[in-house]
Amino acid sequence: MITKKIYKYMEGELSEQEDAIVREYPLTIVVNGQEFATLVCSPEHLDELVIGFLASEGVIRSYGDIKKLTIDEPRGFAYVDLLAPLPESSAFSKRFIGSCCGKSRQFYLLNDVRTAKTVMSTTKIGVEQCFSLMNTLQNGSVVFRETGGVHNAALCDESGIVIARSDVGRHNALDKIYGYCLRHSIPMRDKLVAFSGRVSSEVLLKVSKMGAGIVLSKSAPTDLALQLADDLRITVVGFIRGATLNIYTHPERIIV
Prior knowledge:
It is a single chain. The chain has helices at about 45-55, 110-115, 125-140, 140-145, 170-185, 200-210, 225-230, and strands spanning about 1-10, 15-20, 25-30, 35-40, 65-70, 75-80, 95-100, 105-110, 125, 150-155, 160-165, 190-195, 215, 235-240, 245, 255. By secondary structure, the protein is α/β, with parallel strands linked by helices. The chain has a domain at about 115-255: 3-Layer(aba) Sandwich (Cytidine Deaminase, domain 2). A six-stranded mixed beta sheet has the order 11-10-12-13-14-15. It has a four-stranded mixed beta sheet with strand order 4-3-6-5, covered by helices on one side. A hairpin with a 5-residue loop joins strand 7 (about 95-100) and strand 8. Helix 5 (about 170-185) runs parallel beside helix 6. The protein is flat and about 60 Å long.
């Protein structure tokens, strides 16, 4: 965070104040000497972000696929050396239309076909745990409380939050969680994800790749996200606000 002098209008008057502003930082990822992508992110936990992003994109399958990772924070570069050649670039942009688990036709990027998983988790949580985890996620982020300018994500189990990350980009927050899990060899079958943003199809696919069976959100899902969640056996719980929530898919994992 940084602070900036602002003029605040309140109750008919302007006053000069200091306000906390969230930082936005461009990070260019270079893989095997080739510029791969530039992410606009929050400049914390950048190593986890790079690992999780590359795994989400299907470039790596495990942390062991990385020979060396160097972050040049002043210049805004991350240099990644892989043990194997970089996969064909067309795999990251071609659209694939096919069946998902033998059910409805869905749209995937080609690398999503290789990395999206049907989740077989049997983990269950109670309704009160859903409320508790969402409240803890939102209230536990200092950056969110100070600026209101970040998305929050957390890896959780039945006892509470395991690790939480914040970022200006909602996808980045999830990639940081994913990168942390890969780096520390944390199994995902008994875990769930709490998330502050809208559950889009891209968010749902990231949860699938991580292997979590439940995603909790204070916001809404999209229709394509719910189609994917049905097919990939992921429980989506949205609009967790106050004492209400909506269970959209696979309700057997939520104990009422």
